Automatic annotation (TrEMBL), chain A:
This is 3-oxoacyl-ACP synthase. It comes from the Bacteria.
TrEMBL record, chain B:
This is Beta-ketoacyl-[acyl-carrier-protein] synthase family protein. GO terms for biological process: fatty acid biosynthetic process. It comes from the Bacteria. Residues 1-392 form the Ketosynthase family 3 (KS3) domain. Belongs to the thiolase-like superfamily. Beta-ketoacyl-ACP synthases family. Keywords: Transferase. One of its GO terms (molecular function) is 3-oxoacyl-[acyl-carrier-protein] synthase activity.
From TrEMBL, chain C:
SUPFAM superfamilies: ACP-like. The keyword Phosphoprotein applies. Residues 2-84 form the Carrier domain. Keywords: Phosphopantetheine, Phosphoprotein. This is Acyl carrier protein. InterPro entries: ACP-like_sf (IPR036736), PP-bd_ACP (IPR009081), Ppantetheine_attach_site (IPR006162).
Amino acid sequence: MNFITAYGHLQENSCAVNGETICRRDKNSGDPWFRQIYKEQEFVYPKFHKMDVLSQAGFLTSELIKRANPQFAGKYKDDEIAMLFANRSGSAETDQKFVHAYQNGTPSPSLFVYTLPNIVMGEIAILNKWYGESLFAVLPAFDAEFYINHCNLLLSAGSEAVLCSWHEIAGNQIDVFTFLIEKEGESRFELTTNTLSKIAFEGNFHKTEINANYYY
Amino acid sequence: MSVRITGIGIVSAIGLGVQENLLALKESRTGIMPFSFPDEDKMFMAGAVKATNPVLKKELQTKSQYISRTTLLGLKAAREAYGSAKHHDQIRTGIISATSVGGMDLSEQFYQAYLNGTDADFAMLKAHDSGSTTEHIAAELRISGYMNTLSTACSSGANAIMLGARLLMQGKLDRVLVGGADALTNFTVNGFRSLMIYDEQWCRPFDASREGLNLGEGAAFLLLENEKSIRFSGNKTLAFLNGWANAADAYHQTASSPEGKGATLAMQKAIEKSGISLSQISYINAHGTGTKNNDLSESVALINVFGDQVPAFSSTKSFTGHTLAAAGAIEAIFSVLAIQNQLIYPNIHFRTPIMETGLEPVTIMQTEKPVHAVLSNSFGFGGNNSSLVFSDHA
Amino acid sequence: MDDLKEELKRQLIEQLNLEEITPADIDDNTLLFSDKGLGLDSIDALELIVLLEKYHGIQVTKPEEGKEVFRSVNSMAEYIRKRQN
């Protein structure tokens, strides 16, 4: 049996760890929302400022989960922690910025490197020196079954823990739900469709057509 | 532990379909040549598929108004691989398709039209989504048991194959169509130029003078089936997939580590899983993009794994260009063809070995040696590294 | 104070998103690519090539040329002056 041992939600106006809000957006702040969290939580990783929004969100939620679960990373070998991320819009946010840059005649290399959704997992691997498996899928919507099935695959093929995330950022809408799956945990957090869906939707994901603002 | 491959389909710069690709490989004929996008003068070296969208549309008899080139290429290859397979109530069928640019070609048209204030049709953007290619192919082939789109950069195609194999091994599916597709776009050409790793001449993988990659486009799909599915389909087994692994390099967003850590791990684990010994690997279809960084890092990794007994290896990207998310699937099919036809492909345009490692790829087509097992590497940005092992036995 | 060097420091911070650094933190001789200096990486090097073209109209076609040029603000200023004369 597998268990959800920690989780974090990141949305437009709030950031929560294990269901507890730890940060609220200050509309009057001069800083973008993700930088507000970075400063408030006193992170020190200057590379953060160079990342695109997907990678920033991955950095924040995975680091917050590690803080909430400090003994976690030390339990495993560096290739035993896998990552399983998914979203709906891929890297569309950064893609648009890059298109804009090259149409203006200055294609920016630092933008281009983030025009792939899986770079967020690369950034987390670099920071933690994790050499395990990683997989990024593009799905129409959050699907608890997807994570459960694929965690089972990964955990039966050499991985001991999986850092998962529904990692959707499009326009102003942010639905990021990052969670950690391990083989041991509390029974009330057993990894089942019901439990995972319930925890995921604590974040009230946007139910609207997420890309609507690109169509009209 | 192995999975049967019973169908293959491919579209690349060297041909439409398996037979055309095989012929070009046998004749050592590259598909990379000077290319320019419609309405643009600037020429550059690229492995374009030699068929326009209208030709592909007509051949595929598709009625969709907006269909991206990525989907057209994918559909063509998927149909060939799927063959005459049909929907069957007792066979659980899935599809896993990989892409990195999705419908970017249509989005580019839209963007231009939008900026110019001329008939920009927002419906065009529905094809942008990476999943639209998968959904289109699934609908055409009536595959509904399982559908997934992977996007892990240039290892996507290999990861689709690996995930399909696992789903079969775990009894979740009876057959699965796996592969990838990517079209040439301004987006990717500009991107690789901005990273200064686009070679304006023919790419020269593993050569000391290499300056970068040439992009290509294409698609490839493989049909994987279990015993139960084969009893219904009667399909012949073309080759086996025996080993697979994925590992992170944990070094840099786009560059590979100097010590080739992720690549080494991926190759070692895939070979270990296959149960095939190092000395039995007849040929390695390398990732070999032609960039200074990849080819050196991959060479170091080859030495890490094989010591001074590195098997015959080459990069077929010197034929097709780098087809991004399709590359892993295209090269999987080249691996199957190598086993079926006892071929070891040359690495075109190679002259001088890389000083640091001294490794020399195969430069002339070899047809004399038996090819029993092939290792295929696919390494992606984000440090996402995958290796697959194919062979002629279970 | 050398205007070009001060301008370069501001451009560096903007182009490379060096949020936690101010121009005063960058010495003319700070090694840009050393971990003891600004700790820039290969993507930053490519952005510096973009910076030279965007703000100073100078084209660098081979990334290797950048190696010596981008050692420090001093070497960048020197290179820009040489190319502009």
